[in-house]
Prior knowledge:
485 residues, alpha/beta, two-stranded antiparallel sheet, disordered N terminus
Amino acid sequence: MDNIIYTLLLILFLSLKASSSVSSRDRQWGGVRRILSSGDNNNNDNNNNGDLVTNLPGQPPVDFQHHAGYVTVNETNGRTLFYWFYEAMTKPEDKPLVLWLNGGPGCSSVGYGATQEIGPFLVDTDGRGLKFNNFSWNKEANMLFLESPVGVGFSYSNTTSEYAQLGDDFTANDAYTFLHNWFLKFPSYRTRTFYIAGESYAGKYVPELAELIHDRNKDPSLHINLKGILLGNPETSDAEDWSGMVDYAWSHAVISDETYKTIKASCDFNSSDPWSNNDCTQGVDETLKQYNEIDIYSLYTSVCFASTARSNDQSMQMVMSRSSKMMPRIMGGYDPCLDDYAKTFYNRPDVQKALHVSDGYNLKNWSICNENIFKGWAQSKPSVIPIYKKLISAGLRIWVYSGDTDGRVPVLSTRYSLSILGLPITKRWRPWYHEKEVSGWYQEYEGLTFATFRGAGHAVPCFKRSNSLAFFSSFLLGKSPPSTK
Ligand SMILES: *[C@@H]1O[C@H](CO)[C@@H](O)[C@H](O)[C@H]1NC(C)=O
Ligand SMILES: *[C@@H]1O[C@H](CO)[C@@H](O)[C@H](O)[C@H]1NC(C)=O
Ligand SMILES: *[C@@H]1O[C@H](CO)[C@@H](O)[C@H](O)[C@H]1NC(C)=O
Ligand SMILES: *[C@@H]1O[C@H](CO)[C@@H](O)[C@H](O)[C@H]1NC(C)=O
Ligand SMILES: *[C@@H]1O[C@H](CO)[C@@H](O)[C@H](O)[C@H]1NC(C)=O
């Protein structure tokens, strides 16, 4: 049975009906037109690359420009990644560039990050269009959202056999190539102060991409001005993540003392195959079963009954694949209700045309997460803690935050993971404030800042928009979050 992939139930409220977001090969492609940068002054280069979005249906009027389209990362095999880029609301030329990634693996940064969390246009719940987000992160930075790897959202490969080879390294390499090719379209950002941010499974993607950039930066011609990374409820170290997940479930009264004792006695999350122990498997199954009754991503909010995503009980559960070599994975994403609206919106012909994804006739098939990619994920680093160490010694700014009502990558998982680093404390645990209230707590270490968001679930900005923007602003300034009212 060693090599056989077998399955385990898992909680998931997303309806990921068989739809794969893989686009068919004969579709019109947005096209990369390389522009040779002549005048590299400010951001005027942006108007000429054909990706400026001018007539997005339902878009509220705004004063900033945004661009969307494809950037080819491998011409031989026909791999191309879709991005959506929002210039900062004011003075984009003075503000840093931030790349945002969502996880899954297999989930879309456009569907989650851009249109549910931190972008300027949130998909409206009436399903008609978009509404302006007054707490969009492009108030503080130029925000770049990437659908990564190929097979996610609008991104695709013409060599479909590659979908079975996707994994962490594949993803990092293509994202790296993407950046360099994107800079060809947007030369004024080539040397801009740069940060990478993301949540959930991007807890792996972000440090992995940062490491690649750091390594390649030894060649001056490839230098990217990476200054730091920002991670939200990030998957970090599989053993610690699992351990924190069951401790959190027990300490938040989701599972019984008996189940907890069974797990503690039988699960060795550090082993290469904790699931070879039946007691452990049963204990974890019981935990997932209880979580299946509520929203694991946000323990104290109600599940979305209105959504068709929840129209039958089966759709909440998903079959998850695992092999003996890898920890089982649970797909990360948030808000089943909004997921449906996003799907409706991004499959509209006029929307696809406006975003330079299709000609408006030969449509791409967009879905928020690609279940096949999630299930077929071929390579995952068990821990990115060694990468943290490397990035810390390289002097990068590393901030990690955690919504403390998330059961999926709970605050305990993050604390266990970070404690392995054994970093000296430079500023002790204390509250941070927003609008005269305790927004969470934080502690600073030599080389890393850790903060919580009180009462926020997995996708923190969905729950705490104003607080998140304030926190993001502190991160960019490299200044502690406000510790007085
Ligand atoms: C999108 O995928 C679904 C499910 O696989 C399929 O039923 C539908 O026809 C596809 N739509 C397009 C436009 O290809
Ligand atoms: C394109 O991708 C294939 C498969 O991953 C790889 O073998 C090849 O080297 C890539 N080509 C370039 C130019 O990177
Ligand atoms: C994929 O194939 C289609 C059809 O041949 C082509 O139009 C498109 O440009 C290809 N995409 C890439 C990224 O090469
Ligand atoms: C948007 O935010 C600004 C502060 O950043 C505030 O002054 C304004 O009232 C807000 N607008 C709305 C509609 O909430
Ligand atoms: C996994 O092993 C490391 C190194 O021995 C240890 O520090 C950590 O506590 C272990 N984690 C779990 C969840 O057992």
